[in-house]
Automatic annotation (TrEMBL):
Residues 6-98 form the Hemimethylated DNA-binding domain. It comes from the Bacteria. InterPro entries: Hemimethylated_DNA-bd_dom, Hemimethylated_DNA-bd_sf. It comes from Brevundimonas staleyi. This is Heat shock protein HspQ. SUPFAM superfamilies: YccV-like. It holds the Pfam family YccV-like. Keywords: Stress response. The lineage of its organism: Bacteria, Pseudomonadati, Pseudomonadota, Alphaproteobacteria, Caulobacterales.
Length: 103
């Protein structure tokens, strides 16, 4: 039986991948694995998964990662300009990726 969990990380939070040694910003959250069903996926799909805009040399790239392999990165934070570039904020304080409207 699939059981939803509360996500540990929120939109705009900086995280670090435990094994791959990259940092990135959370741009989307799924309550459980929502990747391609016809491709091999992780064994433990019953946990939150995150789309991370990872910061690499000279550019960023998107990665889809399980909560178990991520940790909070207290050494980095988004500036106000970076937050405005990547996210929108409504009058109630709800944050969403720029590409998605807030409902």
């Amino acid at each position: 039986m699939t059981q939803s969990q509360i996500a540990k990380f929120g939109l705009g939070q900086i995280v670090r991948h435990r094994q791959e040694s990259f940092r990135g910003v959370v741009v989307d959250v799924d309550a459980a694995y929502a990747g391609p069903v016809n491709e091999p996926g992780p064994d433990d799909r019953d946990q939150p998964f995150y789309r991370i805009l990872a910061m690499g040399e000279g550019a960023g790239f998107l990665i889809y990662a399980a909560e178990a392999v991520l940790e909070h990165d207290p050494d980095m934070a988004l500036s106000s300009d970076e937050q405005a570039q990547w996210f929108s904020l409504d009058g109630h304080g709800h944050i969403a990726p720029r590409a998605q409207p807030i409902h």
